[in-house]
Amino acid sequence: MRFARFVLLAQALFMLAFSLAYWVRPYEMANLNGMLLMESASISHMRVYYGGLQLGLALFLLWAARAPERMRTALMMLVFLMAALVFGRLLSLWLDGGSLIGFDLASLIYRLLAALLAALAYRLLREPEEDAQPIPPPTRRLDDTPPQPFRLGDGPAPFEAGADDAAERDGASDQPASR
Fold first, then answer.
1. Distance CA 166, CA 168 (A)
2. Ordered per-residue pLDDT tens for the chain, 179 residues
3. Which residue intervals make up region (Disordered) (predicted)?
């Protein structure tokens, strides 16, 4: 679980750093990718989409790292996200017939390693065991002797009315008792 938490926190730290970089220095971050921001809308898009998305993902990873039951979901999300970005970058290379510039190559390697580390952490993190059927607690018998078969007439002696009981039956008990 410590390795999974380390992977989630490291990814959150990287994403927070990238988010801050896209918010504070959008021109420089765009230039690393070979993009040129010409309009204020493109600057806003760079800050909101790249910075905001990274920030949201980092906050999710921080939240998930705090509880073991959320770690598996966050790790799987990280595997899918990073693998999709690696696939997208490779597909873009193939379609455009371009070469990787330094930042693209570093980004590809980073995302590939992040996906592999998240997959490894997911694999090492044990799946929670399902709750087994509860076993009823043992009952203790009041009498330690083995049970005997029941026969008709084996019960307590029948109730015999005494003199006090006869008076009650005759109606003497209809009057309220004095205190």
1. 5
2. 889 999 999 999 999 999 999 999 888 888 877 788 888 888 888 888 888 999 999 999 999 999 888 899 999 999 999 999 999 888 888 887 777 676 678 888 999 999 999 999 999 887 655 666 777 777 766 777 777 777 777 766 666 666 555 555 555 555 555 55
3. 131-179
Give the predicted TM-score (pTM) of the model.
0.62
Tell me how long the chain is. 179
